[in-house]
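Shipment paperwork, digital attachment
Item: protein structure file
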Amino acid sequence: MELTVPKKDLVRLLNRMQGVAERKSTMPVLSNVLLAVDGPGTLRVAATDLYLALTGRVNVEVVKGGSVAVSAKDLVERVRMMPEGPVQIASHDNATTSIKAAGSARRYTLRGMPGEDFPPLPTPTEGSPSLALDVGVLQELIARTHFSISTDETRAHLNSALFEWDGDIVRMVTTDGHRLSKMEVKVSGRQASATMLIPLKAIQELRRLCDDLAAESKDGSRSPIQIAQSGSSAFFQGGAMSFAVRLVDAQFPPYSQVIPQQSEKVVRIPRAPFADALKAVQVAASERTGGVKVQLSKGTMRIATESPESGEGSDEVPIEYSGAAMTIGFNARYFLDVLGALDEDEVQLGLGGELDPAVIRPSSERRFLAVVMPMRI
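Attachment content:
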């Protein structure tokens, strides 16, 4: 294989592969990235950990076709050190790969392996149900729900996001057992239904993919991202990038049973002052629990905490509330995660009793809600 590729295009692609290639895998090939010539002017770059697979394409000048697999970390480090401009890459019969800057003496050699030894990448079967979703919509679904995915990999049903498509409604739901986030959007046209449980690592890669695709839209227009479900895998195609993920085989909790159907007490709160007060009081909260007391009275919310180790802290926020006084405990970080995912000026807090979950929504729309379980303080 022998080709010439612009450094900036290759670095951008290799940086994306870093998140998928396994650096410490017991299978050395999984720490590699595949370089394969596709046609007269295209280089295909791919990485996989056998659960996720990311593929990108870049325009190149091909002298000789072929493929090779080399260390993703080593390759990106060396390409970054090249001067700006064209980079020449050549692999030889023993898979040794050379990287050289055009018009410069700077040169590296890497030990590789034949491209044929790289694991086969999954592809959807022909005729698989597919959906088209605007990149901005998928961005919003992930941005408003990703923070409540459990990081505990032993609980696969919580270490993932539920992605549902039913008619013209697309929905994403996440929960870690202490809080829940749900975002749904109405899309034009009735499309095939889908239900997917997407693992956290894949959600993080999808978020990067959406951000890249949005950044590439110079004129503000966003091409749809194509989504297909085939067997136990899901496939996402956008621009020159394609992403495959093995879906989680588990039962997501019955989330609709967790969401209170109505709230006895409704509080309207300015979002930014609420977040600012929570951050201030959280400084004095227990590092272990992050617990704060939320005390409601007519027109005022008082947020307070006391810790044997770090003392006390409190602040007040003006609110719209005329109900009975009440006190309830929460983890401050759970509220801050929700408020940080929103950009509306005002939020609505729905409460029941002192042991009932709180429901947070933007005051201006009903597409998003978060449920936060109370805690004893």
